[in-house]
Amino acid sequence: MSWTKQLIQVAYGVEDYQVSGGPGWLTSDRYVIEAKAESADVGKTEMNVMLESLLADRFKLKLRREARDFDVYALVVDKSGPKLRPLKDGEASGCGRDNSFMCGITTAAQLAKMLQYTVGRPVLDKTGLDGKFDVLLDFDTYASRGQTPPPDYDKPSLVTALREQLGLRLEPQKASFPTLVVENVQRPTEN
Predict the structure, then answer these.
(1) CA 53 – CA 136 distance, rounded (Å)
(2) Residue 121 Cα to chain centre, angstroms
(3) DSSP state, 106?
(4) Residue 173 pairs with which residues in a beta bridge?
(5) Which 8-state DSSP code applies to residue 124?
(6) CB-CB contact of 162 with 171 (8 Å)
(7) Most buried in the list 39, 102, 146, 178, measured by CB within 10 Å?
(8) In this structure, are residues 136 and 103 in contact, taking their beta carbons and an 8 Å threshold?
(9) How far apart are CA 184 and CA 60, in angstroms?
């Protein structure tokens, strides 16, 4: 089941912050989309075009495109230099998972993408680091969610962890992104 706003994001290949306008039910009403492609060889691009068509037809969706400025963070290399361990060809990340760290991320671009969900705004990879790395970032996830940690919980802040563990930092910046403004949308028609 998906919210209409999520369907728009998938169809047009944009992030949540790149869709604005429309009624409140875009993020509260959930729908199940059942559809069959004419061929099993249909790729992601063709599927997205079909979803765009479905939204226009069944939801009467009309969008306007415009550029908007956003507060973002640039993920950059700290003055101390990067502390990322490169992965060798065919090597997988060697870390386990729990709810207090990110790991298994292999590129700086993937790390930036994951960080945007933690910091609540877009994060742009401006590290200039190419290749794959064994990324382990252990930080205070309670603080990042605005929660109080248990008394014996001792993890560094995200800012400190990025600098000390990975040799990276977040710089506040402004950036312009294409956005989709919902001009018209209706609850879907019945089959």
Answers:
(1) 41
(2) 9
(3) -
(4) 72
(5) E
(6) no
(7) 102
(8) yes
(9) 7
Question: What residue spans of 71-182 are helical by DSSP H?
Answer: 108-119, 141-144, 158-161
Residues 6+ away with beta carbon under 8 Å from 126:
74, 75, 76, 171
b/e per residue 23-34 (b: at least 16 CB within 10 A) = eeebeeeeeeee
Q: In this structure, what token pair is assigned to residue 20?
A: 């604005």
Inter-CA distances, 172 with 18, 49, 52, 74, Å:
19, 35, 34, 6
> pTM score, two decimals?
0.75
Give the separation between CA 36 and CA 44, rounded to whole angstroms: 13
pLDDT in tens, 56-107: 999 999 999 999 999 999 999 999 999 988 887 777 666 654 444 666 677 8
Do residues 123 and 115 lie in contact, with contact meaning Cβ atoms separated by under 8 Å?
A: yes
**For 8-20, how does the pLDDT look when each residue is reduced to its tens digit (9 = 90+)?**
999 999 999 999 9
Q: 105-118 burial, b if ≥16 CB within 10 A, otherwise e? A: bbbbbbbbbebbee
Residues β-bridged to residue 73: 123, 172
Angle at 177 between CA 144 and CA 78, to 5 degrees: 50
